[in-house]
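[Automated response] Your request has been received and processed.

Submitted sequence:
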Amino acid sequence: MTEPPATFTDFVALLGHELRSPMNGVLGFAQLLRDDGERTETELKYLEQILFNAELQVRRVTNLIDLAQAEQGALYYKADPTPVSDVLRFAIETVLDEAASRSVSVKVAAPDSDLVADADRMRILQILVDILSNAVRFSKTGTTVEGGADLRDDGFIEITISNETDDPGDLNTRSDWKSAYARAVQNDENIGLGLPHATVLLSLMGGSLHTRYRDGRLQATLCIPAAV
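Generated structure:
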């Protein structure tokens, strides 16, 4: 007889895997329908909406699994030399359709190809997609998500992403999932796991995430160790 999960965190991790598997199936079949060349314009519009929401759900479930594993001290990563320009360009391409649908431009300068992080490539990509998606989603219509990357004197790579918004929310409760949960319950709103997830992953890799709101723009600053 299979033993039940020892803790609620174990249960969350297990449930996350159970949720992610069918969503991957939805994504796969929706992509097949979109790409078979026989869809009407209206059908393609509906399929793009299905794909967008399925991809968003997979990201949320993945974040949930990671946070549960981090709580157990069981979240691991593999550090490799990771060209920042490659992951940043891919992350930007991932959010362009959503940005276009919201009349938001994305102008995040890809850095020089010599800028290489000592980090887990897929984890950094997860983080960048989450932060860029949030920036696009909460930007004012007709504005631009801006940013870039540079090497600091202390050996860290700094990536900045900013967007124009009238309501940045309470930044003190955005980066920790427990604070985000308490805020969501009190205000009857979505928890928002993107920033807590990014904070945990970056900390695990020896980096950090900071947010600030100034002159109508919300800025996220990611610090990642540079490869030696």
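Summary generated for your ticket: Strands lie at 80-83, 105-108, 116-119, 144-151, 156-164, 208-214, 217-225. The mean pLDDT is 82.
If you did not submit this request, please reply to this message.
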